[in-house]
User: Fold EF-hand domain-containing protein from Desmophyllum pertusum.
Amino acid sequence: MQAGLSFFDKKAPTIAIRSLFDKYDTNGNGKLEEKEMQTLLEGDLGLDREQSWVYFLLLDKNGDHDISFEEFTDWLRSEEHFEVLHDKDKFRSLSKAYNYFKSFDTDSSDTLDRAQFERMMKFFGHETINMDKAFAKMDKDENGAVSFWEFMVWLKWIPNFTD
Assistant:
């Protein structure tokens, strides 16, 4: 995994990032799908399957199961360097949060709709908050669903890759 850290650079030219993105976009659809990201994260960067899946969901900001060029660029320029994966305790907590998130994702979409979000918030003891306001605040891209990334940013458990 260490070798892979060399392409993380806040000043990396867009053309270099595009070249790297295109290398993994093997079907040429302009998005990195799960299998393509798996090749990068597991095959080339050495993550195990669980790390790869959780990390994929963190990079997939809108929860559409694809990594856009913008999401990819934000990640590479964030200089994040897999900080959430290096510390075993942090990764264990991240995995636990994912399992909680998935327990409310009753349609297996890897996102929470408004009703699923409300059930989760009530489960965690937030039944008196304004659910509409809380949902709107967490749904950063305003697509009507809360992705795992949006949930983790809201919890302040991961860096916002766009910072």
